[in-house]
Inverse folding.
DNA sequence: CGTGAAAAACCAGGGGC
DNA sequence: GCCCCTGGTTTTTCACG
């Protein structure tokens, strides 16, 4: 379904998703059209979900990033999941195991916005916030 | 530095980073070269950090994703940060505030691999693992 | 599943507003 | 900061192994 060549392509694309099929082919010794077929197949079967960009949020005025664990109030999970998608500040959300059932990643301009968000989330459940200090890479 | 047109471009690129400058221009009524100038400027100043892909890990045999909070043992932080980059299973790592000072996202093939990873991490600090059940979107 | 060659579309770079 | 033009590259499609 996905062989070692495909995996190599995925690794390369993870680092630079704008390379042309010709460039990709040069890196792994394959013709452009062969590369294209493989990549397209991975798009079709959903291995590649989306091409995206990574943004430096600080440089566009969003100085605060944080993870928030949310322990949703009894019986409110469906409602909360539906609400969460409406917050533009929430950039990622996952259901997780454990007593805290939702994990959020949020991006905000300043502490005031964080406070506002937490105030709103508090009506949905108990929150536990971890500010992101830096990315390790 | 980054105006509202730039932000629109970022939003579009976040969803589909492979659109041509021509397509981007069509979406926001701008010529291809104007779009190119803006996008290139954002690359130059580092607003766009990288073009990447989102992969469906389950479809390539990685059935387990999890967040792990790590409370690093006293005085070991620098060492741990340096070690963490060596684990291919760790796809994201952040320093965070709170008594648990590192937040990890990990991707693994099965429970055995998770167990192995946790065993290794236990030599660096106290772990707290949350399996990811699903992505909310 | 891979190759090769065609036309169509796209990109970099520079001049002009 | 935006638009247009041009030469060169890339993508796309398709017929073939």
């Amino acid at each position: 379904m996905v062989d070692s060549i495909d995996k190599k392509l995925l690794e390369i694309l993870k680092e630079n998703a704008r390379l042309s099929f010709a460039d990709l082919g040069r890196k792994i010794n394959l013709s452009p059209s062969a590369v294209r077929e493989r990549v397209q197949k991975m798009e079709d079967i959903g291995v590649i979900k989306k091409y995206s960009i990574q943004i430096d949020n600080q440089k566009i005025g969003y100085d605060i990033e944080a993870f928030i664990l949310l322990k949703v109030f009894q019986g409110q999970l469906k409602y909360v999941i539906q609400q969460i998608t409406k917050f533009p500040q929430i950039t990622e959300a996952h259901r997780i195991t454990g007593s805290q059932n939702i994990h959020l990643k949020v991006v905000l301009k300043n502490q005031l916005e964080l406070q506002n968000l937490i105030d709103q989330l508090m009506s949905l459940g108990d929150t536990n916030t971890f500010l992101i200090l830096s990315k390790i890479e």
Observations:
- Residues 65 and 135 of chain B are 11 Å apart (CA to CA).
- Chain B touches chain A through 48 residues (CB under 8 Å).
- The two ends of chain B are 30 Å apart (CA to CA).
